[in-house]
Amino acid sequence: MSMKFAALNFLLLLLLLLRYADGRGDEQLENVLRLHSMDHDRRIEDDGGLEARVDSLSHMDHMDQSVMVFFTLKDLKAGNSMPIYFRKKDPSTSPRFLPRDEADAIAFSLAELPTLLRFFSFSQGSPQAKAMEATLRECEIPAIKGEVKFCATSIESMLDFASSILGSNSDFKILATEHHTKSSIVFQNYTILKAPNEIPAPRMVACHTMPYPYAVLYCHSQETQNRVFKVSLGGENGDRVTAVAVCHMDTSQWKRDHVSFRVLGMEPGTPGICHFFPADNFVLVPDSNL
């Protein structure tokens, strides 16, 4: 396969997000088994208006803060403020990608879960077992109409999937949220500091990290129109973030109980449903500059 990509972006991806386990044999297995936050990471890909949502974070105690990543396209204006949850993980403790040949040698199937639990020495009903089951189940759910999905268990398989969507001879770049200040705060009000920068994206692939003993990415692409933005944000505590946001212009195939509709008070078919990406998720788009 003849495939090219933006080398700098890919190098950053390797260094910051998707690092191989160091060494081989027992040392690698030890790294593989170091689970990082094996609670099920829900992929999150009442509208009283934006002002009502910003009024007071204390009013949101009844709602899981981690779902506060959604907004509408009309909210995406310089000067607007909104409460946002940015999950933060320490890459040094995150599961590593296995080399492709090693990943391919391990079953990745819900039907094989009992065998996998024995292989990784996890007991049934444990938090790790529940997280593995949730990830395998999510990966095996059929894609919605107009969507192509794939769970990548190696960097190579992720690149193969991306090239099948973006074109085998296409250059592409990786867009990820960047935190410019160090902070332990994960939920606060942010203000959009300047007009968002829209990234041309005639096609795109979004990849989300999934809880598993080794690194797994849930990657998907939709035939419907999506718009990709880089948004400069300033937090109440002085945090500065350049966030990647995706706006879905066709939500007609989404389930009525999709978390975004509950957060925003919208219904399926509402155009311009948007969400921010945490720093360990990313979007791949064609690179028109190469």
TrEMBL record:
Signal peptide segment: 1-23
Protein name per UniProt: BURP domain-containing protein
Key words of the record: Signal
Coiled coil feature spans: none
Domain of life, source organism: Eukaryota
SMART domains documented for this protein: BURP
InterPro entries according to UniProt: BURP (IPR044816), BURP_dom (IPR004873)
Pfam families from the UniProt entry: BURP
Domain spans labelled BURP: 70-287
Source species: Hibiscus sabdariffa (roselle)
